[in-house]
Amino acid sequence: MKPTITPHPEPNVTIVAGMQWGDEGKGKTIDYEAKDAKLVIRSTGGSNAGHTIIHNGIKYALHLLPSSIANPKVKSIIGAGVVIDPECLLKEIWRITGDSYVIKDNRLVISDRAHVILPFHKSMDKLYEELKANKVGTTGKGIGPCAADKMNRVGIRMGDLKHCTESELRAKIKELIKVPNDLFSLYGYPEWKITEEEMFVKCQKYKEILSYLIFDVQPIIAREIRKSSKIVIEGAQAFSLDIDHGDYPYVTSSNPNASGLCSAAGIGPTQVKCVIGVIKSYCSRVGEGPFPTEQPDQTPEDVGSIIRELGHEYGTTTGRPRRCGWLDLMQLRRACEVNGVTYLCVNHIDTIGLIGQKVGKLKVCYTYDEGEAKYVTFDHSGWEIPKNCTNYDELPNEAKKYIEYIERLTDVPVKYIGIGPEDKAMIVRQDV
Ligand code: IMP
Ligand code: MG
Question: 140-155: per-residue pLDDT in tens?
Fold first, then answer.
C-alpha cells in the first residue's frame, strides 16, 4: 500500500534583506511585515548590526533583538546563524523590559545553535585589523573572530551555556582561548590575555540569566511552517557585505543574501513566498571597500556631506560618519538577481527629494565604464513629500519618475516606499 504523504504546506515565508551595504532601513519593513506574522527570525550577523525602529511612537535602537520584539503578537527568534554577544543582549533586554531580564509571554526564543561572542573576540577583532595591510574597517564587535572559531569548530554555542556540565564547559573554554592567548603574547598585548576562570564566570552568569530563552528552535519553526503561518526572516547587513557575493575582502563574515538568510534561519527554500529587497534612494557605506558612486567630502558640490546631513548617516553601532553617494543601479541590479528579489522597498524618498532641493539635481548610476560610474542626471530641484501622504498617487511626479526609473533598470516592482523615519511613514502599493 502506498503511504499517504501530506502535501507540502503553502509557502508563507517572507525574507527582508538589505541590497546595498547595510543601513537601508530594513527594521521598518520588518515591523510592517510582522504585523500579521507568527514568527520573526533574525538569522545572521550579530551586534555589528544596528537598527532603529519607532513602534507606536517609542524609539528603540537595537543590535541583536529582532525588530519585532516590541510587538506582543509575534514570537521573535534569534536563529542559528547569529553570533551573540551576551553582554549586548543583556543590555538590550534590560532596556526593552524597563529594568529586568525577564521577557514575558515566550516572546523571545534563542537558538541553542547560535554561537557566543566572548570579550576576547573583540580584542582579536582589533588585533586582526591592526595586522592587516588592507583594513576592513570592521565594527570591532568580535563578529569575524567568533565566526572563525565557529568554522574552526572550537566555538561555544548558546546551548553549551545551558546544557554543559562545569567540566565540559571548562574544557571547551580552555580549547577556545589557547590560540588567542598565544597571539596576544606574540603580538605584544599580554594584558589582553584571558583566563579560563574569567571566561567560566562570565558563562555561568549568562547561563543563569539567559537559559530560560535558549531552545532548539527547529520544532517551533516546523510547527508554524506546517500551518503555513506567516514567517518573516529579518536580514542584517546586506548583499554587498556578503562573504561570498559581496566586495571580498571588505565584507562581513556571514551570508546576508536571501538564500543565506534562509539557511541560517533553518528554513528550506521551498517555503519562501517572497523576497523583499530593501534599499535607500542613495547609497552609504561604513568601513573600507569599493563604492563606485561615492561622493567624497570636500569636493566643490559637497554632495557626500549633504547626503550625510540630510539622511543622518552616522553609524548606529559605531557612530562613524558613513560614506555617502548617489544610487548605484548596477550594484542593485546584481543584488536583485542574486537575491531573487520579488519586491523592492525604496527608503528615504523624502530625503532624496531634499537632497535634490539642495544640490539642484539628482544623479543615478546606470552603468560602469571600466569600473567608473556613469550617471543619468535628473535635472530638477527635488521635492517635498506632502503631509499625510499615504498613497502612491499623492507623491510628487518627480518622485514617481525616480521610483519608476529604479523599476525599469532592475525589472523589479517597488512595492514599499519609505517617506519618513516613523513606522507609519511608508506607502505600500497594494496593486503591485
Ligand atoms: P564586521 O561585520 O564588524 O566584521 O565588519 C565588516 C564590514 O561590514 C565593515 O565594513 C563594517 O562596517 C560592515 N558592517 C557590518 N555590519 C554592518 C551593518 O549592520 N551596517 C553597515 N555596515 C556593516
Ligand atoms: Mg544599521
Answer: 999 999 999 999 999 9
Residue 236 CA: nearest ligand 1 atom is 19
Residues 313 and 349 in one domain: yes
| Ligand 1 binding pocket mutation candidate from 44, 48, 278, 347 (most atoms within 8 A of CB) | 48
Q: Which three cell numbers stand for residue 402?
A: 525616480
Q: What does each C-alpha distance from 184 to 14, 366, 423 come to in angstroms?
A: 43, 47, 45
Give CA separation, 31 vs 115, 141, 311, in Å: 26, 25, 20
Is the pLDDT confidence value at 300 over 90? Answer: no
22 lines ligand 1 (CB under 6 A): yes
Read off the pTM.
Answer: 0.96
Q: Is the pLDDT of residue 55 over 80?
A: no
263 C-alpha to ligand 2 centroid (Å)? 22
CA 130 to chain centre: 25
Q: How far apart are CA 24 and CA 140, in angstroms?
A: 21
Average pLDDT over residues 23-47: 94
**Whole-angstrom distance between the N-terminal and C-terminal Cα of the chain?**
47
**Residue-range definition of the domain harbouring residue 284:** 13-83+216-428
Question: In terms of domains, do 180 and 319 share one?
Answer: no
